[in-house]
Write a structure and sequence with these properties.
heterodimer; A: alpha/beta; TIM Barrel; 13 helices; 8 strands; about 40% helix; about 10% strand; globular; B: mainly beta; Rieske Iron-sulfur Protein; four-stranded antiparallel sheet; 11 strands; elongated; Metal_Hydrolase (chain A)
Amino acid sequence: MFSRFRPIDCDLHPMVPGMRALTPYMDEFWRDQVEERGITTLDTQSWPVRSPKTIREDWRSEDGRGAATVGLLQAQSLDRLGTDLGILNPLYGVQLVFNEDMAAAFTRALNDWTRAEWLDRDPRLRASIVLPLQSIEASVAEIERLAPDPRFVQVLVLVMGEMPLGRRQYWPILEACVRHGLPLGIHAGSAYRHPQTSVGWTSYYLEEYAANQQAFQSTLASLLTEGAFSKFPDLRVVLLESGVTWLPSFLWRLQKTWKGVRFEVPWVDRLPTEIVRDQVRLTVQPLDAPEDGAIVQRVMDQLRSDALLLWASDWPHWQYDGDAAMPPGIPESLWPKLMRDNPLATYGRLREGVVA
Amino acid sequence: MRGRSTGSRAVARIVVAPVGEIPAGGRKLVEAEGKRIVVFNLGGEFYALSDRCPHQGGSLCAGLVSGHVESREPGVYHYARRGEMIRCPWHYWEFDIRTGKSWFDPKRVQVRQFPAQVTTGAALVEGPYVAETFPVKVEDDYVVVDA
């Protein structure tokens, strides 16, 4: 379908079928704990399994689940779309666990499951290192443990966590990202430490899914104002399943206000839009735009760059029908950049051993 | 208070005030030739800017005078040039009193600057400039702005 572009899919979601899939990757204590406590699943309400959005209907297995094996990924996405490389972003609810030690053990198991059951089974696959953000030390340790494997090309956190992600307590993690050439991937979803909106808890899934956009805005503002981008100019941040079209209007407001109060953040020493353009990337599924190409082009003009956007199918989330995995309205002239050039420029580790 | 150059340039030489009337760190607003101009005394040097913020027209004379803060890394504040930055009272955009330039976009966003200097009363009385309503004394010094 897209093979002539040798596309790189930047957001694929293997779904853990249940905790028993992970116990082989735990030590005996945690393996027994899972059984003794009867922990059957870490599915979270950020992606309710039965929600139409979570798994496209024709990609569901008979049990109503999906995305459980590499075979499904190959048949439903990689082979159909002609994907050259794909980045796995597992979204199992390890971030919701409160016990730091349990969180670290479950997250290690998740990452090892991804490595053994996905990366080892298809050479086209790469993955993100899921972080046990409940502990900054454990997060750094997990990066150090897995970074020697070049198939891990990014680290992955949720956009709604314990604290705004720019806070300086987190900087040892950012430092480790930069040291190993790993972008910080921030995906939609909540660890439920706080209400999913700044005005309180939501009643409906619809509210919650839409609220991710607010969280991305606040997270971007946090990284910028705390000085994370200034401290780590080589840091790349990738917003995953964030939507795109909110970015220009949000940056307009942020930058306008910065002009008046930049003295409180003097390390933000150039236009915030320029910093974002240099250090932030976004996946295009969803794009959050009408199908009118002229309107999409206006958004592109407002972004003032064709280097910001990365193609992603968001498999198995239901963002499109059939094989229409590129959001309508994005001109085909941009496809080579979105599908190949921009991912290669963003993910240093993808470039190793790959023909540009 | 105003004098008009006898030359061909359409520049008015405005006698703002006796030097002693604008103390160091002080400022004075003058209106002349249809312009509102704010004159600052920075340690004995005088600078004149349009009183109109290039953003939306706020009166800079009513703004806060502060210093300039820079940072070589997050959490480190290098504060210098106290008293040399004026912030518009409306949206706090900051401008360098010495140049009129904004800090955040000095090429494109700046306040119009006018030449200001100190001139003797004798020169004003005898020179090509005629003070119209301002009582100029030969023995005093005056702040003068070309606008």
